[in-house]
Amino acid sequence: METEDAKTVREIPRTLSGFTFFLLKEIWRQKKWFLLPLWILLAALALVIVLGGGSSLLPVIYIAF
User: Fold this and answer.
1) What total number of domains does the chain contain?
2) Is 5 domain-assigned?
3) Is-contact 48 57, C-beta < 8 A?
4) Is residue 1 domain-resident?
5) CA distance 61 to 65
């Protein structure tokens, strides 16, 4: 079993802006560039659902996927 020292364990921030910054920093540090388009797509979809009000937009999203 792997053990990690206290320096390598990272605490995940509890605010939205802190989590976003943490996520981007981790993607940059680990060089996982392929994750950026995925996170951008998920954020855009969440924004459309929240701003759309839900009920009239859901059938369109259901058909798209």
Assistant:
1) 1
2) no
3) yes
4) no
5) 6
